[in-house]
Write a structure and sequence with these properties.
The structure holds 2 protein chains of 2 kinds.
Chain A (H helix, E strand, L loop, with lengths): L2 H40 L23 E2 L6 E5 L1
Chain B lengths: L6 E7 L2 E7 L5 H19 L7 H6 L6 E2 L2 H16 L9 H6 L6 H6 L20 E4 L4 E4 L11 H17 L3 E5 L2 E5 L7 E8 L9 E5 L2 E7 L4 E4 L2 E4 L2 E2 L4 E2 L4 E8 L2 H14 L3 H8 L3 E5 L4 E4 L12
The chains are: A mainly alpha, B alpha+beta.
């Protein structure tokens, strides 16, 4: 291989690596963006500390009520 | 944390009973201070029977725009969100319908008056609808179109419960459960056994009355019923849950619906909508994944989305 061909091969290699690096960054950035969107879209399991008036769905509880015995500490009924 | 450290404070607010529980005895005084301040602000913002409330001024504004407080703006935004998420079932523009049915003063006075003479002059039609509320939340301005008159009874108490629980947990750094007339919100670290809530028709019912006890650890729980806030209009019994499509008290196959949700306001919106949707509520709640307990007029119970079954020994 001539010196010219060796330089050309090295240049092609560096150019290829630069392209791969750029693509990797773009894929990574897109992944972060998608993860953020998924967090917003699916993050509707909430506790009472989260304000809800900006949410566009009724928020389900983190877990359903569990059975218990006794009179209860408070009563939920109409008033 | 032991059960003995849970401290309870009971007081009257909004014409009903409030119960505040905190997981530390030291927390109860600062917690009550926070609740009193917030509840006073809510009352001044949206009490339909106070002439100096922002809601009364808005109802009297004849469609003119009004500058409003941050609290009232949040309450209105919450009411409009509830309307949107329930397909318009929980509608804040039912003020005129309620007044027409005789609910035009504090409920204790309505009930004390006995039978209310019918004052309706013609057929009751659909309410103007929540889209007649033109709210600019950021600019804190609102105006009512279409002759709408507001009543925030379906959402304000639950919003206040959420806000109280949230602010107390953050400021006092304790676990908290608050019930405002049966609208229950919890926040902060719960006791090891969770918070115990009795669900029944009437929040003021004694513990031996039929119902079910459950435990929650977060979010909110609310109950709507056609059996409690009732009065006589002429010769017929009426209640306060208005079907926006008719402007009349909802006719439902359920007498009482309890719902658990991520917040008390969402639980309350869903329980009220379920009463109005009647039989269709079962599929709606199931599709939303909302745990609920629905009681028919004959006392039989349906549940959705993991709500525990009643103890066979207890009646609904």
């Amino acid at each position: 291989m001539s010196e010219h061909d060796a330089r050309a091969a090295a240049w092609d290699r560096d150019a290829g690596m630069a392209k791969i690096t750029a693509i990797t960054w773009r894929v990574g950035a897109a992944g972060v963006a998608v993860a953020g969107l998924l967090t917003v879209a699916l993050g509707h399991h909430a506790d009472a500390s989260q304000a809800s008036h900006g949410r566009n769905t009724i928020v389900i509880p983190a877990q359903p009520p569990q059975p218990a015995a006794g009179p209860g500490q408070v009563t939920s009924g109409a008033s | 944390m032991t059960a003995e450290e849970i401290t309870t404070d009971t007081f009257e607010v909004f014409g009903t009973t409030a119960v505040l529980l905190v997981t530390s005895a030291d927390a109860v005084v600062p917690a009550r201070t926070i609740a009193d301040r917030l509840l006073a602000a809510v009352d001044l913002a949206c009490n339909r029977f106070r002439s100096d409330s922002e809601l009364s001024r808005l109802n009297a504004a004849d469609g003119e725009p009004l500058a409003i407080s941050p609290t009232f703006a949040d309450l209105l935004a919450t009411a409009l969100r509830a309307a949107k998420l329930t397909g318009g079932d929980v509608d804040p523009t039912c003020g005129r319908a309620l007044s027409g049915l005789g609910y035009d003063r504090d409920f204790a006075e309505v009930r004390a008056a006995g039978s209310v003479p019918p004052r309706l002059t013609g057929p009751v039609g659909p309410v103007p609808g929540w889209r007649q509320v033109r709210l600019d939340h950021g600019a804190r301005r609102v105006r009512l179109g279409g002759g709408a008159q507001l009543d925030l009874g379906a959402t304000a108490k639950a919003w206040a419960a959420d806000r109280c629980a949230d602010q107390i947990a953050k400021s006092v750094r304790c676990g908290v459960m608050i019930s405002l007339g049966g609208d229950v919100a919890v926040a902060g670290k719960p006791p090891p056994a969770g918070w115990q809530v009795r669900v029944t028709d009437d929040h003021a019912a004694p513990s031996w009355v039929a119902g079910q006890t459950v435990t929650i650890s977060g979010g909110g729980l609310a109950t709507s019923s056609t059996t409690v806030r009732t009065w006589e209009l002429g010769s017929r019994a009426v209640h306060h849950i208005i079907n926006p499509a008719t402007g009349e008290p909802a006719r439902s196959c359920w007498r009482t619906v309890s719902v658990a949700a991520g917040t008390c306001i969402d639980a309350n919106a869903a329980s009220t909508a379920a009463i109005i949707r009647s039989a269709a509520a079962l599929d709606w709640l199931h599709d939303l994944g909302l745990p609920a307990r629905l009681v028919r007029h004959d006392g039989t119970v349906e549940t959705t989305a993991g709500w525990p079954q009643d103890d066979p020994g207890e009646a609904a």
